[in-house]
Amino acid sequence: MYSDQDLFHYSLHTLYLITPPTILSLLFLTLYLITPPTILSLLFLTAPYGKHHRPGWGPAIPPPLAWFLMESPTIWLPLLLFPHGSNRRNPRALILISPPPTPLQTEMRIEA
User: Fold this and answer.
1) CA–CA separation, 46 and 35 (whole Å)
2) 3 state DSSP class of 17
């Protein structure tokens, strides 16, 4: 039986991506490099969001659009990656990624 970590490594290799230790190392290195400048800048600057909003800090995005853009990867990323995964032909995985039936579809199934 394979562990989750083995399956994750295998799936990354089958997608021809970077090997997991390398990608993990790059992600951690990136976080470690951007943390000190972020902390130092926030000691002296007030981030302009919410009640601290002020002009001159880039374009203002309407809150509904900002929320949509922030949440959109949860929709398109699984749909983009699923066809390349090792479980793309697994019926359980297909059921999980399929949208739920609408009430009309459910009613039609009951009548048939």
Assistant:
1) 16
2) coil
pTM metric for this prediction: 0.43
Q: Evaluate whether 11 touches 86 at the Cβ level (below 8 Å).
A: yes
Q: What does the pLDDT look like over 66-97, one tens digit per residue? A: 889 989 988 888 888 777 777 778 888 777 77
Residue 40, pLDDT score: 95
**C-alpha dist (Å) from residue 3 to 6, 8, 88:** 5, 9, 19
Instruction: Dig out the tokens for 5 from the structure.
Output: 């970590």
Burial 59-79 (b: 16+ CB within 10 A, else e): eeeeeeeeeeeeeeeeeeeee
Helices and strands (H and E) in the chain: how many: 6, 0
Under 8 Å between Cβ of 20 and 8: yes
Q: What is the pLDDT of residues 33-57, one digit of tens each?
A: 999 999 999 899 877 777 777 777 7
Distance CA 37, CA 24 (A): 21
